[in-house]
């Protein structure tokens, strides 16, 4: 006799759900072991996620505290578990670090080995950090990035001229998150946004701006009020297009110029490329119609796409044709007069 | 001069239209050149030239509508219709007259009559002018006047730039036509009789 299995499908579903929840909660359980060292705030899954990177395991010794906004340690005197907030500036986000150009680095490649001690020794605050050129300068492997030229351009920039050594590469390029962008991008808008964020990190953040000056941070929107279509310029153009001198061989110019030398003339950008000229002309007419009304705005706006520098070859050809035509007419008239 | 030599070929509306058209074309050519070769030292200020050019362009468009409707609804339209068969031969015949025959005092191969106001060369050039070049200049002019309606990009370059090129080319060819037209008007019974006929409406035969 065949016995019919008396299991309701609902029970099967419930059991499976329980098993899944159990596995998930095990995976998310933090290491609760109590040692005298700081406790980490993230889970085992984080280690698994980044374990493929060369020094990820060793870096976790640092990131278990510096990888999030809080850290815990057992107070050696009171033996109490203490939770503290991590200073925002010393937080290294794993998801950013492990996609950055320095993702295969050990923390101690740049920072002192002494950081392995906790609490960290006080003298480490005086630690000198290497600049880009210290590691990349004179290295053939990095020759295509032209670090020497970048360094020379940077020395001429307003940043270095005004602040000298106080202004380091890391003011703009955080070595923990920096990734090559302009060379590899397929999405121009993202690159523009990435590049502009570098500038805005200080120029749109009063606290960071005042790290190097006692002056009030200028209001970027107000300072650019003269700029037509401000929003489009801000999202479609990099700050450095107007605020730096282009160096032919460098993809990203590092010669940031003082504000009085910044590009302010529309035609500096919009005159040479016809598509840009066209969009500028369309904008001019549209704005004139909005301001002056259809009749006045359309007919009397004074805008024209035609200009003397448009096509010189065509101008010359047209002069030659008209000249020849007038010669033929003169010859014809002379012959007619002669035969009269 | 007997009345049989005088043909009333140009009714009032044609003369008024022709005069308007002539003045507007001259204004458009002068202001157009001023815009094309703009220079701070020129007499006509760039903005003024553009404004005059725009207004004259709109008026020329209205004048063209008058011409188009006039040719559609009056007998004047028939002078612009030509028989294709043998047209090249007739064109060449007229061309030969203007280049050789005229100096030998030959009689014109296609004398002006009430049925045939234009000789084949005139017919060909007027049709090209009024049904190709002027409409092209007007349409491209509208495209430049109101740039939002022009395509953004065509064949990898700016649509507006191409419209611009089309407008200048049409304007240039109209200028070439005007030079020839004015000179050929001196070929009449006397060198001013054709100009007179555009005032009183009567054509005087050779």
Structural features, described:
The complex is a heterodimer of chains A (340) and B (206). Chain A has 340 residues and is mostly helical. Chain A folds into three domains: 37-116, no CATH class; 130-264, no CATH class; 266-297, no CATH class. Helices cover 47% and strands 3% of the residues of chain A. A two-stranded antiparallel sheet of chain A has the order 1-2. The longest helix of chain A is centred in the C-terminal third of the chain and has 27 residues, at 312-338. The model of chain A is unreliable at 1-7 and 27-42 (pLDDT under 50). Chain B has a single domain, classed as Transmembrane di-heme cytochromes, Chain C (Fumarate Reductase Cytochrome B subunit, Up-down Bundle), CATH 1.20.950.20. Chain B has helices spanning 12-36, 46-73, 87-99, 120-145, 159-184, 193-200; strands spanning 6-8, 153-154, 157-158, 202-204. In chain B, helix 1 runs antiparallel to helix 2 (46-73), helix 2 crosses helix 4 and helix 4 (120-145) runs antiparallel to helix 5. Chain B is globular. The mean pLDDT of chain B is 89.
